[in-house]
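Chapter summary example: a protein plus S-adenosylmethionine.
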Amino acid sequence: MTDPTQVHAEQIAYWNSIAGQRWATRQTQIDAMLAPLTDAVLAAAAPAPGARVLDIGCGCGATTLALAKRLPRGHVTGLDVSAPMLEVAARLGAGAANVTWLEADAAAHRFAPGAFDLLFSRFGVMFFGDPTAAFANLRAGARRGARLFFACWQSLADNPWMQVPLAAALAHLPPPAPPAPEAPGPFAFADRARVARILTGAGWRAPRFTPFGFPVDLGGGRGLDAAVDQTTKIGAAARAMAEQPEAVRAAATASIRAALAPHAHDDGRVTLAGAVWLVESANP
Ligand SMILES: C[S@@+](CC[C@H](N)C(=O)[O-])C[C@H]1O[C@@H](n2cnc3c(N)ncnc32)[C@H](O)[C@@H]1O
């Protein structure tokens, strides 16, 4: 049986090593890729003017800074466990008076009770070894009636932007071991029933799920080469290829390029469909 404590520690190590470094160097491209979602998720979260907001797993800080800009009378805490990503965030946010960066584990940090009016996240909550315990810990920092609002991916099958390059790469690789059920990862919160169980088990109200679809621009507007580079460095295809010999990686990369080429537009975008859940709950 998988030990949640060990799984959690592995995630923290992962986001402080290869994943954190790769995200940190590609922050501009990733933020461009997620821009349509970011606009929608901020509008839907609609924080009140003076809100005190916690951005969980804020990464390189795009949503923290966007929230802070909308809330000149409020305050936003960007919390993340990844030192390399927070370094980028702090650089981008230099001079923002209403932002605090906090390098901490969302599952273990001792929050001041009732410190936040809104707990927010763009893709930062699917990586906990014991998600129910993590959301219970986060709830300690929420005032009574505080809202929880996050975006998480629907299933891999519903997300061709990840599924298409992965399938192209797998044509050259031994079949991957099936992931442990409910293992942390980008698609860990695809199942609404599971997310509802986690949140209510942690004392949050039964959540509401709103589907949101958008074209994921894998190259962030910089064309097919950038899209291929992105998919072979970050995400499911990248992970599947990681330990392979150079010749296999080269063959997989060529197949990914061929699979993405039909989705390249003249203006530099390379778009495939993405599907997200916008999840909303509240602290009773
Ligand atoms: C997919 S990235 C999303 C980053 C950012 N929210 C964005 O949308 O660009 C997931 C983030 O969650 C963070 N994370 C993972 N486990 C965490 C934990 N236990 N506590 C705090 N942050 C965590 C990672 O370091 C990473 O920055």
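Key point: The longest helix spans residues 246-260.
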